[in-house]
Amino acid sequence: MSDGNAYRVHHRDVPQSIPASYIQPTHNLAKLLSAEFKEIDADEKAEWDVKADADKQRYLAAMEDYVPPSDSDSDSDDGAKKKKKKKKKKDPNAPKRNQSAFFLYSNATRADIKAAQPDLAFGEIAKVISVNFKALPAEERAYWDEKAAADKERYQREMAAYRDEA
Asked: How far apart are CA 142 and CA 144, in angstroms?
């Protein structure tokens, strides 16, 4: 007896013999073929077993010479297996990036909030800082924006000097 391959070969070969007018859009072809395969007699099943065995031998012969592609072969552009680019190492001598107004405000007020509410977790403190920063009056917000602009100028000066050295 076959291990189910006969049914697969039957399923592959028989649909061409079923008239299109017989298959209605509401029919499920797999159910139709399954019912038909169950109804065939032992002699016909034996024929399908022989076909399945022949197909299996053909497959095994084809696989003898098969060499799977190596991981380094990347002929396809489907993006399924793209290798990650290695992150460029940061130069320890490079100047520190400029900070935004929010980060400057956060660094200045985090200790006060932590002292006032010591039971808050790190993320909860960040939420409180965010709410406070959004509620700042215009003049205080302008103060932090000016500090951020000054820090940006500092960064640009230091980067220009750093590039001149390199």
From this structure: 5
Q: What are all long-range contacts of 9-13, with beta carbons under 8 Å and residues at least 24 apart?
A: 9/48, 9/51, 9/52, 9/55, 10/37, 10/48, 11/37, 13/51
**pTM higher than 0.90 for the full model?**
no
Q: At what angle do helices 101-116 and 122-134 cross, to 10 degrees?
A: 120
Catalogue the long-range contacts made by 71-79 (C-beta closer than 8 Å, 24 or more residues apart). none
In this structure, are residues 36 and 23 in contact, taking their beta carbons and an 8 Å threshold?
A: no
| Residue in the block written with tokens 């032992």 | 42
Cβ pair 101, 148 in contact under 8 A: yes
Tokens for 114, please give them.
């932590």
Burial of 136 (0-12, 13-18, 19+ CB in 10 A): middle
Q: Encode pLDDT of 62-103 as tens digits.
A: 888 888 887 765 555 555 567 788 888 888 889 999 999 999
Reading the block at residue 164, the tokens are 């001149």
Q: How far is CA 92 from the centre of its chain?
A: 32
